[in-house]
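Ticket closed. Logging final result for ABC transporter ATP-binding protein.
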Amino acid sequence: MLTLKNISVKFKDKVVLDDLSFQAEKGEIIGVAAPNGTGKTTLFNVMANYLKPNAGEVIIDDNYTYKSEKQEIKIRKRLTTFPDQDDLFDELSGIDHLKLYGNMWKGTTKHIPQIVGKLNMGNYVKNKVRTYSLGMRQRLCFAMMAAADSSIMLMDEVMNGLDINNVSLISEYLIEMKKEQKLIFIASHLLENLDLYADRVIFLSEGKIIHEQRFGRGNDDYIKISLDPHQYNRLINEYVIPDNHLYIASHLFCLPLKGMKQAEQMKWVEQLLGLKEKELSIGPLGTVEYYEKHYH
Ligand SMILES: Nc1ncnc2c1ncn2[C@@H]1O[C@H](COP(=O)(O)OP(=O)(O)OP(=O)(O)O)[C@@H](O)[C@H]1O
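Final structure:
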């Protein structure tokens, strides 16, 4: 549905995207994780054609690229980007914004009351935007994407400025959108939140995708326990630790269970609990853990 083919972007001498290729299908939510200034927004800008890459191309639905105006129009109908709060019109109401997006992309406004209801915006949506708080504006921006209902949605920092209740409200909405076969990209620093709905999270560094984490497809389980460096050193001196263990960000010891017999697993659980009576868990690594692994 969306293919990135050998995308490179340079600002003067600074390479931000370096021969990056990627393919995404409908019904997927793709998280994009990386520290500030790595290139997440640049990647989104290339996907939306707000920025021409120095090399490479974006292909939508196997057919359309930004190379001709006619094809770009086809893509515009299929792809929306998360509105910037600064681009909202202070003197218009929320409902005016939703109607605008509904009419422009979907050709109707019939679905808007339902969106307003689902996002708990009924008590403010008719007021002018200039009276809105940061979180109210952010919910409106999300509602505008829902009103457009395009098949591809690029959401940069969708959860910015939202309280916990609204983060969970929008997370649930995203899961519904996924069921409707939307393809959604989400760049976020709320890493644990991505675990709730993302099918894949890609990690960027030096212009490349350095890791792709897939959820829900038999991910490898680990025994995980937090150990300080002193405890970790004691562990590796006292026991023969499998080479494929991880010690993430000098605080989290992770032992892969793959290929380990049950008796051995039990032995390790006992040994680790003996070392430190602290929380031990078993499961796959989450986005936070991969993030610390790659960027610590
Ligand atoms: N128009 C531009 N001109 C020059 N440099 C730019 C431009 N846009 C982005 N950059 C640089 O490209 C790099 C990547 O920026 P980008 O905004 O894509 O990062 P990001 O991962 O989205 O960061 P954040 O998490 O802070 O939003 C940064 O070093 C930034 O300074």
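The chain has two domains: 2-214, 222-295. No further action required.
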